């Protein structure tokens, strides 16, 4: 059973990346700060006054987008808000993952609780209620252009809060009305401005960015572990990772990755076995020797993306917005460019880390380059194929990751009768990054399987403590070492899980200590 998570308080300070991940991925409940509900009530009073003004106010008494100049009479405004949600809930394609939807929900809740959107307090409490009841609206893959926010995904969430559409509860699909009733929640009836406030945000793409950053924190450490496995098992040198050499190029991420490699290799009897003047090689192949430079650049890219994400967590994204001094102003903060750019940047880094990993794997299987290991690490070459096709899988993934590294954020397309004539495509950038991260985990898993088998083939020399602990973890999980060919796919799936959940990283660095 999962460990109960402490509640995340909404409305005092901006959410942290860790808090969003706790709610989205680990099911942490949310609590609304009383002061936040007070702010919400104050801003709603202003919207109520504007609703009675005969002059038009965007989103309060007008239509939306290209229909912004159309005045809507007071007796039609509730219908307007409901129609907005129903028409914008136009997503199509496969269902989006639950953790993405929950991230989107909690981020929209934070904006609603800011008191800058003009919704009623009951709208805020309704969104908190959905999260705490574990009601996950069904959101579809396609529908967001990443400008005016993630309109379609957010509309599907709003539709569920209205008691319409479909949701999942504990993985079971059901009608939203039935789910709300089972949780003793009242369907929302939206008033002026509220439809816009529920859908005008970049919450989907930001949520996926935050989840990606959490994954990459694990995966980039793991990439250092897999590189150490390869360097050690291929009789590479750790001299190139020396701290004074790293200091000549003061890149922060590079120094971190090099320190990890030093820690994992400096107690290795295999590395020690060929140290000294008798080892006449000038340098190892680039994929071995230059791992810190590539992994480090990816780390620095992640740090930049995290800065953007933290700033975005402090943002209020809505249009129009209620300002601190009580004005209701249209603005363009719903454009997803800041998030879209870093999502694309991360996809480039992910592709390159996977690429260098696959090259290290390929070297380990090539008898001309692996320093006296058997071809493809096979037990009986010719009868056995060893890990030949596992490398094919890694190569195929890397090829796809290169395609996924093509930026989405430069591919604007006009919409809404040319009113919205430049969009960010941030949602699309986020979706392809999620696929890329899954691919990176699989490529690292294949290198882990390869490196640990190669370590066993260096017996009787033992590996270092950290890399040896990774080898022992795999063997304890039923992933066999050298021997005749076996069904490889289950091993790759098992180790991919160990990579993603941080078990490989934990084994390496606990073992190293």
From TrEMBL:
GO terms for molecular function: histidine ammonia-lyase activity. Its EC number is 4.3.1.3. InterPro entries: Aromatic_Lyase, Fumarase/histidase_N, HutH, L-Aspartase-like, Phe/His_NH3-lyase_AS. Pathway: Amino-acid degradation; L-histidine degradation into L-glutamate; N-formimidoyl-L-glutamate from L-histidine: step 1/3. It is found in: Cytoplasm. Signal peptide: none annotated. Keywords: Histidine metabolism, Lyase. Its main location: cytoplasm. It catalyses: L-histidine = trans-urocanate + NH4(+). Pfam families: Lyase_aromatic. Belongs to the PAL/histidase family. This is Histidine ammonia-lyase. It comes from Microbacterium elymi.
């Amino acid at each position: 059973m999962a460990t109960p998570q402490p509640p995340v308080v909404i409305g005092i300070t901006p959410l942290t990346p860790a808090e969003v991940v706790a709610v989205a991925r680990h099911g942490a409940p949310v609590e609304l700060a009383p002061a936040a509900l007070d702010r919400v009530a104050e801003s709603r009073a202003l919207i109520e006054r504007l609703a009675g003004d005969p002059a038009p106010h965007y989103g309060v008494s007008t239509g939306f987008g290209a229909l912004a100049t159309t005045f809507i009479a007071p007796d039609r405004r509730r219908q307007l808000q409901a129609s907005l949600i129903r028409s914008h809930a136009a997503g199509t394609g496969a269902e989006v993952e639950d953790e993405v939807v929950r991230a989107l929900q909690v981020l929209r809740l934070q904006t609603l609780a800011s008191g800058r959107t003009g919704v009623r307090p009951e709208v805020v409490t309704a969104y908190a209620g959905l999260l705490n009841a574990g009601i996950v609206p069904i959101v579809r893959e396609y529908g967001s252009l990443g400008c005016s926010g993630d309109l379609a995904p957010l509309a599907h969430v709003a539709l569920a809060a209205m008691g319409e559409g479909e949701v999942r509860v504990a993985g079971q699909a059901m009608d939203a009305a039935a789910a709300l009733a089972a949780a003793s929640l009242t369907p929302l009836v939206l008033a002026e401005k509220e439809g816009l406030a529920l859908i005008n945000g970049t919450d989907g793409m930001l949520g996926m960015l935050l989840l990606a950053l959490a994954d990459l924190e694990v995966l980039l450490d793991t990439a250092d572990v897999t590189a150490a496995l390869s360097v050690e098992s291929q009789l590479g040198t750790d001299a190139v990772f020396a701290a004074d050499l790293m200091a000549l190029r003061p890149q922060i991420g590079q120094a971190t990755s090099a320190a990890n490699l030093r820690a994992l290799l400096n107690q290795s009897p295999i590395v020690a076995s060929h140290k000294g003047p008798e080892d006449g090689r000038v340098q190892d192949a680039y994929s071995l020797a230059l791992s810190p430079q590539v992994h480090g650049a990816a780390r620095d890219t992640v740090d930049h993306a995290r800065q953007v994400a933290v700033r975005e967590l402090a943002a209020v994204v809505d249009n129009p917005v209620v300002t601190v001094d009580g004005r209701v102003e249209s603005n363009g903060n719903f454009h997803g460019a800041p998030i879209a750019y870093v999502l694309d940047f991360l996809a480039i880094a992910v592709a390159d880390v996977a690429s260098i990993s696959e090259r290290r794997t390929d070297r380990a299987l090539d008898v001309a380059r692996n320093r006296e290991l058997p071809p493809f690490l096979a037990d009986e070459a010719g009868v056995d194929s060893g890990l030949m096709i596992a490398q094919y899988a890694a190569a195929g993934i890397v090829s796809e990751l290169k395609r996924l590294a093509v930026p989405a954020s430069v591919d604007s397309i006009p919409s809404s009768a040319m009113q919205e004539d430049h969009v960010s495509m941030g949602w699309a950038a986020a979706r392809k990054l999620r696929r890329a991260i899954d691919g990176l985990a699989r490529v690292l898993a294949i290198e882990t399987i390869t490196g640990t088998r190669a370590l066993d083939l260096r017996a009787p020399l033992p590996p270092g403590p950290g890399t040896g602990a990774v080898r022992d973890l795999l063997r304890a999980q039923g992933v066999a070492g050298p021997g005749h060919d076996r069904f490889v796919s289950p091993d790759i799936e098992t180790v991919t899980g160990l990579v993603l959940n941080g078990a490989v990283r934990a084994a390496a660095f606990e073992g190293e200590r």
